[in-house]
């Protein structure tokens, strides 16, 4: 009898399981939708941006990436993990029906976020000459980005507050609006400077304005969150009024809780960026030693993997990020209730849902890397760019898995252990960096990154398995099914690319932006259609996503 109950707990068959899974899926839907739309916008803009920068595109993209990598790490330090920490602690106190404590936590967090925003904005502005990696053109780009650090910590904190209530819609919508305003500002300024010449300046000025767009987007995103908070203020007040009011937490204790939870979030939240920063400050010197390329060629090679491919791959990685944000409050609730079955259930659900989305997306992108790269990045370094994108797409599965399982570790208060494992992986990355670049050139940083994150992921998964006695039978079963259908998706998309490259080549230039776009769209529809049909036909989607997909199957007349 006990064995049967244990199996049901692991496989998510009880009513409680279904409820928590539905909550996770609903939250994931909002966060995934907002994140994906934002990432798509963040990739699509590159097409007109590339056209307007013309011959300066690769150099401009390299400059843009170098500024953003440093900014990204400092931004995460400025945010200090406070949004996720607040989401986690708000969910904790809400579970105890102490909504007033959660509000107090949010207000105290605001003081921290405003203070850290000011400090790190000034740091980036005045330290830019010390962080330019020997390229003075990076300085104005970094200083333009410093303005965004003033606003984004407060915006991110407010998103964390909403997420603590499992209310993902405001975060998702504000994220989309933020990205939309940022992209519009980027494109308008690039058009006026580089194409129309209405605003005086060179390509460096245009890149600086493109990075200043982060501030414009952040202001718009914060305004959206303010609207939702004002709209729902009466609901929140009623929750506070009907709280238990039995738990009194001093202000100093609230700050202590925030800081204790925040420090690991800084390190783990910046995990991928830290690896990219290692690449930025080692790639040029090592490539000069092993390849002896001219500086302009090194800038272009750096842009190929760190800029061009990275922007596209982050679309799929953002799926994992959306899941990670959703899992943390749910795991915190299970941990607060000392529900080990619930913890096991959420870990397994999170891993399977991650694979269900990430694996076919990554393999599909690898299959269409050729036309997809030409669509977004043009024909420069064509074969190399496509091969880098294809390889990076596979690597993205490893990066996405780290995002999810590191969030799981934080959700169950295993912060120090997760940081320890990440540091070990970082050391492995640094050790592998030199031989990887020596052997594989432009692919070298990605090879070293893969090895580093494989080590970290293995250590984390081993720790979770030992602590919570997780049985991976269900995960392995679902993984095999997902992998089979993903390989079918890959083959379908790959064959489509070859077939339509040949067929459409008789009527149009398939290497043009329009021709590449047509081939990409056809391959995506056919490859994605195979995956959707296979998962609906075998009921795999029902078992992972829930019974609601039956409606989609009926609409598509799949029996």
TrEMBL record:
Q: Which Pfam families match?
A: Polysacc_synt
Subcellular location(s) of the protein: Cell membrane
Q: How does it sit in the membrane?
A: Multi-pass membrane protein
Q: Which UniProt keywords apply?
A: Cell membrane, Membrane, Transmembrane, Transmembrane helix
- Where is the segment annotated Disordered? 1-20
Q: Which residues cross the membrane?
A: 36-58, 70-88, 109-128, 140-162, 183-199, 211-230, 258-278, 312-335, 347-369, 389-409, 421-440, 446-462, 482-502, 514-534
Work out whether the entry's keyword set contains Transcription regulation.
no
Gene Ontology cellular component terms for the protein in this record: plasma membrane
What top-level branch of life does the organism fall under? Bacteria
**PANTHER family attached here?**
LIPID II FLIPPASE MURJ (PTHR30250:SF21), PST FAMILY PREDICTED COLANIC ACID TRANSPORTER (PTHR30250)
Q: What is this protein called?
A: Polysaccharide biosynthesis protein
The organism that produces this protein has a lineage beginning with: Bacteria, Bacillati, Bacillota, Bacilli, Lactobacillales
